[in-house]
Every structure is written in structure tokens, then in C-alpha cells.
Amino acid sequence: MKTLGLIVLAVAVLASAVGAFAQDTATVTVTEGENKVQASVQPPVQPPPAPLAPEERVPMAKALAIVGACLGAGLCAVGGGFGIARIGGNCIESIARQPEAAGPMFTPMIITAAMVEGGMLFAIVVCMLGVLFI
């Protein structure tokens, strides 16, 4: 049943994308008596964009550094989220096994999660500073 739903979804997406494959040129054939006249209708041609001035261009190394810093910030956020989730999940699992130890386990869990979050935010700030000062 799940496969059938995925197939229906794929067909619906492909059917909605038909307009993306439309041609911009139309050919019209007009018959007047024995003469056939063909006319081709094309959309107006847009001029190419003006080239950037040398001071507006971004060198490839700078662009890749910015992309790397942004990816680093994203990985820091994801890694910190996984770390905090693991800390919380293990603490809850321990409390479920031994409910009387909930009090002594809760405080170290919060402190450890705060340390992970602090490290994550520090890494994100370092990545964003890299973007600003590249």
C-alpha cells in the first residue's frame, strides 16, 4: 500500500511538471489557395545580464570559504542537537530503570546539556565570524 502511494505521488509530481517541458517556439501553417505559408513565433530575446564590475565579483576561494563556514555552522547545530537528545534520552532511560535516583541524575544532566549547547553555540559563532571576516 505504501509503494502504491509513492507511485501515485511520483505520477502527480511528474504530471504537474509538464509545463516545465513546454517549448517557447510555435510554428503556424496558413494555407491560402495553393500557397502554404509557415510562420515561426518566438518569444522576445532578453539581453544577457551586464557583467559584474571587478570589485563586485567574489573569488572562488572566498565563495567556497563562505559555503564551508555555513555548512560548519549547520553541522554544529545538528551535532549539538543529537548530543543533547542523547544526554536527555539516556537520563530518562536511567530514571525509568531506577526512579528513586531521579533527583541526583537530573542536575548533572542539565549541566552536561548546557555545556554541549554552549560548545555548539561557540562553534556556530566561530563559523559565522568566519563568514563575516573572510
In summary, what is this structure?
By secondary structure, the chain is mostly helical. The chain contains three helices and two strands, in the order H-E-E-H-H. It has a domain at 85-129.
Give a verbal description of the structure:
By secondary structure, the protein is mainly alpha-helical. The chain has a domain of 45 residues. The chain is 63% helix and 10% strand. It has 3 helices and 2 strands; from the N terminus they run αββαα. A two-stranded antiparallel sheet has the order 1-2. Strand 1 and strand 2 form a beta hairpin. The relative contact order is 0.09.
Task: Map the helices and strands.
Blueprint: H1 2-16, E1 26-32, E2 35-41, H2 60-97, H3 102-132
Antiparallel strand pairs: 1-2
Shape: elongated
Q: For the record, give the distance between the C-alpha atoms at the N and C termini, rounded to a whole number.
A: 52 Å
Structural class: mainly alpha
Q: What is the average of the pLDDT values?
A: 82
Q: Write out the strand line-up for the largest beta sheet, numbering strands in chain order.
A: 1-2
Question: What structural keywords apply?
Answer:
2 strands, mainly alpha, 134 residues, two-stranded antiparallel ribbon
